[in-house]
Amino acid sequence: MSESNETEKRPRVAIIAAMGRNREIGSNNDLMWHLRTDMLFFRDTTMGFFVIMGRKNFDSIPAKYKPLHGRVNVIISRNPDFAFEECYTCSSLDEAIEVAISNGEEKVFVIGGGQIYEMAMQAGLVDEMYLTHVEADFPQADVFFPGFNQLEWQRESIMKVQADIQNEFDFEIVHYTRTK
After folding, report:
1. How many CB atoms lie under 10 A from the CB of residue 67?
2. Which alpha helices (H) appear in the chain, and where do they start and end?
3. What's the chain's Rg over C-alpha atoms?
4. H or E stretch covering 73
5. Sequence-distant (≥ 6) Cβ neighbours of residue 120 within 8 angstroms
6. Which of the 8 DSSP states describes residue 5?
7. Residue 2 has pLDDT above 50, yes or no
8. Interior CA angle at 122 toward 135 and 154, to 5°?
9. Pair 25, 133: CB distance under 8 Å
10. Is 55 in contact with 76 (CB distance < 8 Å)?
């Protein structure tokens, strides 16, 4: 971060993601399941916050939902010419955090994809995670959530949902808070 902002408070960084038993999060730039309750949890949890995502993740959002309503959308792209109306475009995760700082944000959500999750985890930026653990295997997956040491996180179950007409698989949403 730039020297001028070193004294400004960094917002809390939260990751929100859903993954299969083997940390699978996507295939061919799309989700591999339909979990209505999880999608509603995602919407309600991120509403009103900055959401930081990679360009591929942004591209995977259906057109009718772009940009994500009620949230400030921040897209990370290596393409300096990439732009989308009503969204910030940044070239790095650090720049995205700078945008949040300059807007006085106290909390931001990293919403994917795999590379952006990995960057946030490797940089040690993540303070908390909302992870949906889908009780199924997805051998077709080509994107995975990064591994993490569970001993460094306090785990709190938020909800368990059994498969039904609106939720294709059993799943549990867990809130992790960094302890170390």
Report:
1. 18
2. 36-46, 55-60, 93-102, 114-122
3. 16
4. strand 72-76
5. 13, 15, 93, 110, 126
6. G
7. no
8. 50
9. no
10. yes
Containing structural domain, residue 121: 16-178
Return d(Cα 114, Cα 106) in angstroms, integer.
24
Q: The domain spanning residue 88 has which CATH number? A: 3.40.430.10
**CA distance linking residue 1 with residue 119, whole number of Å:** 15
pLDDT in tens, 144-178: 999 999 999 999 999 999 999 999 999 999 999 99
Could you tell me if residue 3 is inside a domain?
A: no
* Residue at token pair 């994809």: 113
Q: Write out the DSSP string of 138-159.
A: -TT--EEPPP--GGGEEEEEEE
Taken as a whole, the chain contains a residue count of 180
**pLDDT tens digit sequence for 74-105:** 999 999 899 999 999 999 999 999 999 999 99
- Give the global pTM: 0.93
Q: Is residue 52 part of a domain?
A: yes
CB neighbours of 169 closer than 8 A, spacing ≥ 6? 33, 35, 134, 135, 136, 163
Q: How many domains does the chain have?
A: 1
What backbone torsions phi and psi does residue 121 show, to the nearest 5 degrees? -70, -45
Query: For residue 116, is it within any domain?
Result: yes
Residue 148 lies inside a defined structural domain of this protein = yes
